[in-house]
Amino acid sequence: MDTRRTIVVVLFAGLVAAGAAGCAPPTGGQPSSTSTPEPSVAPTTTPTPPAADDPSTWLISELGVGPVEIGGDFASTLAGLPDTWTNDQENCAWTAWLNVPEAGYGVAFVRGPESETAPISEISVYDSGEGKPTDGAPATAEGLGLGASKDEILAEYPGAEEGTAQIGGGTWLELPSDGPAHVFFEFREGETTASDVVVTTRSEPSYEVCG
Predict the structure, then answer these.
(1) What is the domain range of residue 196?
(2) Of residues 168, 141, 134, the one with CA closest to residue 157
(3) Residue 50 domain-assigned?
(4) Considering the entire predicted model, what is its pTM?
(5) CA distances (Å), origin 106, targets 156, 175, 179, 203
């Protein structure tokens, strides 16, 4: 028997068997797949609208005062407010106002008198001058409103501009704004605390709106 031939045959058979073993599929079931988690979405929160019957929840900004917005429709805005608001159709149809009997402040808003469809262009929060407390009156997000001092306002709004009213001798501070309206803090002549806070598209607050 040819010993060398026998050795070659044996080696060849071993190599074939090893190759077959190497090509065999792995056992133990299907390979696991890695799942990609869905990105989490943060829940959105809807700001709570101000209560129409509670001016203490109203914020003053260049956009308006509470539910009363600069540029808004006068009639529909008034319709959405409680019947404690007054609108004198005969003598001052372009103005609506709220007086709070138990407090010392009021709120009013005005449209252009030239047309019934003219938008709201001025909103004011004012000290009624009766010596009653003005706690609960609308204020800015920083808590400034009636009774705020010039120093307090300038500390919060260093870019505010000071001016003198064309009528009446009072002064005002105009807050910076990127929109068509500005917030004004008004001070009666000789006083240093705000008697009115007005949001208006005019160059300064109106001296009177029903004169």
Answers:
(1) 55-200
(2) 141
(3) no
(4) 0.76
(5) 24, 21, 25, 22
Report, in angstroms and rounded to the nearest whole number, the Rg of the chain calculated over CA atoms. Answer: 37
Structural domains of the chain, count:
1
Q: What is the pLDDT of residue 20?
A: 44
| DSSP codes of every residue in 153-204 | HHHH-TT-EEEE-SSSS-EEEEPP-SSS-EEEEEE-TT--B-SEEEEESSSS
Reading the chain (211 residues) residue by residue, the pLDDT tens digits are: 444 444 333 333 443 344 444 444 445 555 455 556 565 555 555 556 778 889 999 999 999 999 999 999 999 999 999 999 999 999 999 999 997 778 899 999 999 888 999 999 999 999 988 778 788 899 999 999 999 999 999 999 999 999 999 988 899 999 999 999 999 999 999 999 999 999 999 999 998 888 6
| pLDDT at position 96 | 97
Within-domain flag for 167: yes
Asked if the structure places residue 21 within a domain, the reply is no
Could you give the 3-state DSSP secondary structure of residue 43? coil
Closest by CA to 148, choosing from 206, 197, 108, is: 197
Distance CA 200, CA 195 (A): 16
Q: What one-letter code names the amino acid at 42? A: A
Residues 105 and 131: beta-carbon distance below 8 Å = no
Measured in whole angstroms, the distance separating CA 67 from the mean position of its chain's CA atoms is 12
Return all residues near 72 (Cβ < 8 A) that are at least 6 apart.
64, 119, 120
Domain assignment present for 25: no
For residue 148, give both structure tokens. Answer: 């705020």
